[in-house]
Specification:
The complex is a heterodimer. Chain A is of the alpha/beta class. Chain A has 15 helices and ten strands. Helices cover 32% and strands 10% of the residues of chain A. Chain A has a five-stranded parallel sheet with strand order 1-2-3-4-5. A five-stranded parallel sheet of chain A has the order 7-6-8-9-10, with helices on both faces. Chain B has a domain of 245 residues: Alpha-Beta Complex (Spore Coat Polysaccharide Biosynthesis Protein SpsA, Chain A), CATH 3.90.550. Classes of the chains: A alpha/beta, B alpha/beta.
């Protein structure tokens, strides 16, 4: 009797200790298992074309802001691949071919990338590789991949209507595109593309970390524009009216810490918030998602039909909250009626370091980071299907397709 | 966001690209893009567009707002373009869209082609249902995402605002509960795993500032998120006032009387306080109280982080204390440059070497204050701390117990301390080996509490328990109340006081406001007294 009595509290103690240890973070189970931790080394080989420096290095030399803006992924991907273990110098054994052309490095004085020359730059690069090497013509690009991190990917325009009108660059129709833009059933998201997070400076975010025991006392946090008065004075165009709706409905709500101010404690504030709004802007994606994930703030994604980064590896529905643009007026009801266990589970998933790592582009690259997730995505597409390799003499792409301005040499 | 300038500057850029046409007025932007898009036309038509564009600009300037090019597109163009109309409400111009972004509702329609119906009605249709007129746009060939399956429409959307855009109190409460629960989880993950009880030892005695100090400390302790017991040792025996305050505090407390009275000399006061603390430690030992012992003097100010840090102590820890040796003097003594340079950093605490181990102690340098320090409690001069104050040390109460498992040998037995009546200056005397003290608070870098001694003069009077009973001695009648004629004899000192008040008042005001007959002349009083 005595020993039985003693054993019970001991068992309870052990059980609770085990529970406490397991409770801290939860492993993310993607649709295909723990794919975030897959190691791409040995699963694929990538050949990096040697392009003249006018396509890459000279652009960066002209304007070094390319290395820190949100489109910098293309540059860092190139650098990563050059020194990676999956790089092969023998193109015959390569599964994938990478063309290092920086199409988003032509910046205005204010730092915004101009996409007007990008189609020509891309076309010129493809012409170069198709003439120098036989591998492009072998498949017409079906085993090539390109990083196109601009607003609407390979549509190369910042205005959605114009981008839709242009569509994906005709020469890239067979290639795999690695882009930040993702929206279901959209012209600019090609079948088989890999969506990646936008570049957010990992060093800068690390220097603004606060102790994790700092209590989260802000319910909803957002900093950014609600009306783009320069380009859309009446509202309704920018963000499809969603951001304006957020402002008009919740500007008086004490639970919503939203404003257009950009405080110096922006990163610290995100770490003190439970929910961070990630509404669409002119394009549905933004670095806010990356910041929210890194700082453990549950992202509230307000962008209809958006395709989030690495959607096949990361179960975003379990991590973030999706709110339809039509439901924005009910945002406070939606957020306060999420059950407590769901919120805590989302926070546990966000606390998982592999989740944060997958969103970042650290230099030098670390296992599990976004570079590796891209390679994992490429590896998952192997082996290439039958229609990748063309019969000799077969031509699929039309090289003279597209607006006349694109055909001008660069 | 960055994107804000994107299209705007883009449009400007495109105008630069197509030959530097100057865009005058706001109406230029869209037109410039359009024109650039129509670049490959023949020069004649481009000149025509240019003239049209200039005409639009002029009209805009004349009218004072951005002129909708819709009119011209309706007449000439077949290209689907998006545009933005003006915001001013002018009945003269047919407006394709109407929006009011100010107050309540906005309804808009997207128009991409001229065949769309205008909202010729001004004001806009005030359908408070706030649904967007999206359906109309979707019906007409507006720009969808290019794909017939997509239901996300590109173009102008309505701004959805609900009829009562104010917070619902029930939801606010739910949000607060969510945040509380989240914070609880945070504490559970990142906070202290097994919080120990905090035993706060406070020596105090009855004097004017006691209520002030104890109230402050009381509030601090109420905010400590760990189980806490407040051990208050009162010199001169327990008083009802202190007991009342403790019982109203809501804290668990132990009120211990200390037989000796508190002396009025600072040196003696420090010594007595030390003996009181030792007495408290003995009580802890007797009652086998378990937890972390914190020495909180009643006039000190503590941060909340202190209580989180002390949970980490194994046996004995030290924290950095900020020393506020204030100068109560009205004139600050002029300090020479050298003195200013040598002014001590007002911090006492552990000093660490580069590997994070205890290397020594920072003590307060009292030299600049030599000769100017206060000796009597309540004197207006800097009050200096001892070399190392008790407040900077924390103990594991098991160190005090007679037998506790794991008790290190460098801890002296409590009985051996203070027997011979020697001065126990600081808790280091409780140890055989002072080097085993753990530095807390990021190895002493963080100052977690401030040491301060503020007292009134020892002979200051204050109402007992801060309750006014009996009434005060000085009674000044209100000027305008109908003060009843008092027939009862007023005691003489009251009369004197009143006479003084009256005289002072009389001397200030003019003679016309002679006081009423309630005042007696001084002479009469004297006679009466006689």
């Amino acid at each position: 009797m005595g020993t039985g009595r003693a054993a019970l509290p001991l068992a309870v103690l052990l059980f609770s200790a085990a529970l406490a240890a397991a409770q801290d973070t939860e492993r993310i189970e993607g649709s295909a298992g723990d794919v975030l931790e897959d190691d791409p080394v040995g699963r694929l080989k990538v050949y990096v074309y040697e392009l003249p420096t006018k396509y890459n290095k000279k652009m960066v030399a002209k304007d070094s802001r390319c290395l820190s803006h949100m489109f910098a992924a293309e540059i860092f991907m190139h650098r990563f691949l050059l020194s990676s273990a999956i790089r092969t110098l023998n193109p015959e054994e390569a599964d994938w071919f990478y063309t290092p052309v920086y199409t988003t490095c032509d910046l205005t004085p204010w730092g915004h990338p101009l996409p007007f020359k990008s189609p020509r730059i891309m076309r010129s690069a493809i012409q170069f590789i198709s003439k120098r090497w036989p591998y492009w013509n072998r498949t017409e690009g079906a085993d090539h991949f390109f990083v196109v991190p601009h607003d609407f990917g390979a549509c190369f325009h910042y205005q959605e209507e114009k981008a839709i009108e242009r569509g994906v660059l005709p020469l890239l129709r067979r290639a795999t595109l690695v882009q930040t833009f993702g929206q279901k059933d959209h012209v600019c998201l090609k079948e088989g593309s890999i969506t990646i997070p936008p570049y957010a400076p990992p060093q800068k975010m690390k220097t603004h970390l606060v102790p994790p025991e700092t209590p989260r006392s802000i319910f909803v946090y957002f900093r950014g524009l609600f009306y783009d008065t320069a380009n859309d004075p009446e509202g309704g165009y920018y963000a499809r009216g969603a951001r304006a709706s957020v402002w008009e409905n919740f500007k008086n709500n004490p639970l919503f810490d939203i404003s257009t101010d950009h405080p110096p404690t922006y990163y610290e504030d995100m770490q003190r918030a439970v929910f961070c709004l990630c509404p669409l802007g002119w394009a549905p994606w933004s670095p806010r998602l990356v910041e929210a994930v890194v700082f453990g703030c549950i992202p509230v994604i307000i962008a209809d039909d958006i395709v989030l980064p690495f959607a096949d590896a990361i179960p975003w529905e379990e991590i973030g909250v999706f709110v339809a643009e039509d439901d924005v007026p009910k945002l406070d009801t939606i957020l306060t009626s999420i059950p407590m266990e769901v919120i805590l589970r989302k926070q546990r998933l966000l606390a998982n370091p592999s989740m944060k790592q997958a969103m970042l582009f650290p230099q030098p690259a670390q296992p599990g980071d976004a570079f590796h997730q891209i390679l994992n995505g490429l590896a998952r597409k192997l082996p290439h299907g039958k229609d990748v390799f063309l019969k000799p003499g077969q031509k699929v792409l039309n090289w003279t397709e597209g607006p006349r301005g694109d055909l001008k040499p660069w | 966001m960055m994107k804000s300038l994107l299209p705007h500057s883009g449009l400007r850029r495109s105008s630069v690209v197509t030959g530097g046409r100057s865009s005058a007025g706001a109406g230029a932007d869209g037109a410039a893009a359009d024109v650039s898009g129509a670049g490959p036309r023949a020069p004649a038509s481009s000149t025509f567009w240019f003239l049209l564009h200039a005409l639009c600009c002029l009209i805009s300037l004349f009218l004072g707002f951005r002129f909708s090019r819709l009119l011209f597109f309706m007449l000439f163009s077949t290209t689907a373009l998006y545009h933005s109309a003006t915001t001013s409400s002018s009945a003269a111009v047919l407006r394709a869209t109407t929006t009011t972004t100010t107050t309540t509702t906005t309804t808009t329609t997207t128009t991409n082609t001229f065949t769309l119906s205008f909202n010729a009605a001004n004001p806009p249709p005030s359908s408070l249902s706030n649904r967007t007129a999206l359906e109309t746009a979707a019906a007409i060939k507006a720009g969808t995402s290019g794909n017939p399956q997509s239901h996300v429409v590109v173009g102008r959307h309505g701004i959805r605002i609900r009829p009562w855009p104010h917070p619902d109190p029930v939801e606010v409460m739910r949000a607060h509960r969510i945040m509380e629960r989240v914070q609880e989880e945070q504490r559970r993950w990142y906070g202290v795993k097994e919080p120990r009880q905090v035993l706060v030892v406070t020596p105090t005695y009855s004097r004017a500032f006691q209520a002030l100090h104890l109230t402050g400390l009381l509030h601090t302790l109420r905010n400590v998120p760990y189980p806490l017991t407040w051990i208050v040792v009162e010199a001169g025996g327990t008083t009802n006032a202190t007991a009342a305050m403790l019982s109203r505090s809501g804290l668990t407390f132990v009120h211990i009387p200390f037989p000796d009275r508190m002396p009025t000399d600072w040196a003696d006061r420090h010594a007595t306080e030390n003996r009181m603390r030792l007495h408290a430690l003995r009580v802890i030992r007797e009652r086998k109280m378990d937890g972390v012992v914190v020495f909180a003097d009643d006039s000190n100010v503590h941060t909340m982080e202190l209580f989180d840090e002390v949970q980490k102590v194994q046996w004995m820890g030290a924290v950095s204390v900020g020393i506020l040796a204030h100068t109560g003097a009205a004139e600050q003594p002029r300090l020479s440059e050298e003195d200013k340079q040598n002014m001590p950093l007002p911090v006492q605490g552990p000093a660490c070497n580069s590997s994070g181990h205890l290397a020594g102690w920072h003590t307060f340098n009292s030299l600049p204050f030599a000769g100017k320090a206060a000796t009597v409690v309540g004197e207006a001069a800097p009050v200096l701390p001892r070399g190392l104050e008790w407040a900077g040390f924390v103990l594991n109460s098991r160190m005090l117990w007679k037998d506790a498992e794991g008790k290190p040998d460098w801890a002296k037995d409590l009985d051996a301390v203070g027997e011979n009546g020697e001065e126990i200056e600081n808790p280091l005397t409780l140890l055989n080996d002072p080097s085993s003290v753990e530095p807390l608070g990021n190895c002493g870098k963080k100052v977690l509490l401030w040491w301060l001694r503020v007292e009134a003069r020892a002979d200051s009077k204050f109402p007992k328990g801060w309750v006014i009973d009996p009434p005060l001695e000085n009674v000044i009648p209100a000027k305008r109340t109908p003060w009843p004629e008092t027939t009862t004899e007023l005691p003489s000192e009251l009369l004197d006081a009143k006479q003084d008040q009256e005289d002072r008042r009389l001397s200030r005001t003019n003679k016309s406001s002679r006081p009423r007959s309630t005042t007696k002349r001084k002479g009469d009083v004297q006679e009466h007294a006689n």
